[in-house]
Structure formats: C-alpha cells, structure tokens
Amino acid sequence: MSGRHHHEGYPDHHDHDDHDHHHDHDHGGHHHNHAHNASERRLWWALIVLAAFTGLEAVGGLLAHSIALLAEAAHMLADCGSLLLAVLAIRISKRPARPDRTYGHRRYQPLAAYTNGLLLLGITVGVVVEAVRRLMSVPQVDGALMMGVAFAGGVANLGAFLILSGGSSLNERGARAHVLSDLLGSLAAIVGAGLILVFHWYPADPLLSLAVSLLIFRSGLQLTRDSAQVLLEGTPPGFDAAAVERELAGLPNVRSIHHIHAWSLTGETPIVTLHADCADGADRRVVLENVTGTLRRRFGVEHVTVQIEDGECVDAETVGDCHEPRSMQVP
Question: By C-alpha distance, which of 312, 118, 132, 131 is closest to 227?
Fold first, then answer.
C-alpha cells in the first residue's frame, strides 16, 4: 500500500501561503514485513549452524593446543552473539512508529551492524595478542586433531555463508562478513594443520592466526564504516545528488532544484527531501507528480518530501546558498 500527502499550506492561511510541501512514499508494509521475515529466518538458521560448531572448535582448540582453533572458536562465539543481536534488531524494527519515534525502530538494524563491526575489531586485537604470545613460546600442536576440527568448522561456516547469501540488508551483510572471516579462519587452520603434520612446523599455527586477523580487521572496519555512515545520516551509496538535480531541473515548469538532503534509515533505500522552484503559473500538483515520479522511476527513491516554491526560497535567510547550482546539503 502506498500513501501520498499533499498540503496546500495551512487552512487558515491558504490565500497567503506561497509554498507547497509534498510528502510521497511507498509504505510497502507487506513487502517490508516479508523481507524482514525472510531475513530473520536466514539469520536464525545461520545462528543454529554456527552455535552447533562453536563448542566443537573451543574443545578442539584446547585439546590440540591450537591458537588458530581457539581464535576461530572465539570468533564463532562472537558471530553467534552478533547474529542474535541482528535478529533482535529485526524484531524490534517491526514495532510500530510512535510519537517520539516517528520513523519507527528500524534504526536498531544499523546500530546492531555497528556493534557487530566493533566486535570484529575487538576480536582482532585479542587474536593478535595471543598469537604474538604463542610465537614467543611455541607449544606443540596436535596437527591431526587440529585438521579434523578445522575441517568441521569450515563446513559449518560454508553452510552459514550459503544460508546468508540471499540477503542484502546491512545486518545480513554484517553477518556475512563475520561468517566469511570465520570461513577464512577455518581454511587457515586447515593449512596450518597440514604444515604441522607434514613439516612439524609449529609456528605455522600462530603465524596463520595473524594473517587471518588482518582479514577479520578488514571486515570489521568496513562494516563499522558502512553502518556509521547510515547512523550519521550520510549520503546513501550510489545516490548522485548532481544527477538528481540535473534530471529534475529539466522537467517542465521547474526553474531550479536545490536544498537536497539524502539519507537512509537502514542503508538500503534512500530518503530524500528537496526544494523545487516552479515557473509562474505552473500547476503545482503536476510538478509534484513529475518530480516524485521521476525520482521513483529513475533513481529508485520511494520516500521523498518535496517543497514547492514560486520565487524566493523559504529558507533563504538560513540557507544562504539556497538557489546556488548543485547546493546539495547532506545531513
């Protein structure tokens, strides 16, 4: 279901108001609920698979004296926590909007993703510290046990990664980053076990743990950056404000487009507000429909608020560059 709201100023002052506000968005309640339910199912299945093998990795790491397996177990435990956090964020985001949270609770999703990114960075520090300590005093590692446990963990991580491969939300991207780094950790442990079995080269265990920690750090840093961009209301990826301005300014009876803001609630679809200066005598409703329709068709923007003006910008006193070309202002 979609909703469109058109306001011709305040009723008591209609004759004196020369600005229009138009708010257009597709609520898409059924679509969002279906997507959230599918995302939640994928996260639950991935959580079940990883939780089943986390204990195996931990026990195997202790018995084999392998820092690579212990690091992998710690990483998988953190993944289980982050997946649970992601599921809770989706559950909370389904709650209806209320007066003090007019956009609802969907912000919990990028907040959960940001927390997951910080967890990955923290895990990296812990792995590096322990690996360096092991390099200073290399213990003997049971290569055969290490190989078996690492292979089982790799199968579990591959299964969880395939389960999450169909999702595109920020939460699922974060979960995939966790699981992919887990999978790489399992592969590194398998390689390390092979080197120990064949060459009895025990430093391979902590050295490969250091290599994997770099991959974990990269995933954590990227996830933290992406989710922070959403939380700070940065411009959504792929949104080209200059292209939007050029396209809309070329519409009939539009003199200029300015004061563009673009952000996103969850990192998926952009939310846009802008001012449109109409030509004298133009039908405002037609201009509104042209602007919102173009944004939807050409740029995939379903949630937009347009302020129609016919002359001086209503915010000219507070926004000095209101009529300057490409005066995009991103929160």
Answer: 118
Tens of pLDDT, residues 165-220: 877 677 777 788 878 878 888 888 899 999 999 999 999 998 988 887 887 788 78
Within 10 angstroms of residue 218's Cβ, the number of other Cβ atoms is 14
Strand order through the sheet with 254-264: 3-7, 19-25, 303-309, 270-278, 254-264
Q: What is the biggest distance separating any 2 CA atoms in the chain, rounded to whole angstroms? A: 88
Give, as one character, the DSSP assignment of residue 12: G
- Cα 200 to the chain's mean position, in Å? 43
Tell which phi-psi region holds residue 5, choosing left (phi > 0), alpha (psi between -120 and 50) or beta.
beta
What is the model's pTM?
0.71
SS3 breakdown of the chain: % helix, strand, coil, rounded to 5?
60, 10, 25
Q: Residue 37: what are its φ and ψ, rounded to 5°? A: -65, -40
Instruction: Name beta bridge partners: 303.
Output: 271
Q: What is the CA radius of gyration of the chain?
A: 26
Summarised one tens digit per residue, pLDDT across range 239-275 is 999 999 999 999 999 999 999 999 998 877 899 999 9
If we measure between CA atoms, which residue out of 216, 59, 187 comes closest to residue 123? 216
Give 157-198 as a DSSP string.
HHHHHHHHTT--SHHHHHHHHHHHHHHHHHHHHHHHHHHHHH
The SS3 of residue 246 is helix
Structure tokens at 150: 């690492």
Whether residue 6 is predicted with pLDDT greater than 80 in this model: the reply is no
Over the stretch 124-162, which tens digit does the pLDDT of each residue have? 898 898 889 888 888 889 999 999 999 999 999 999 999
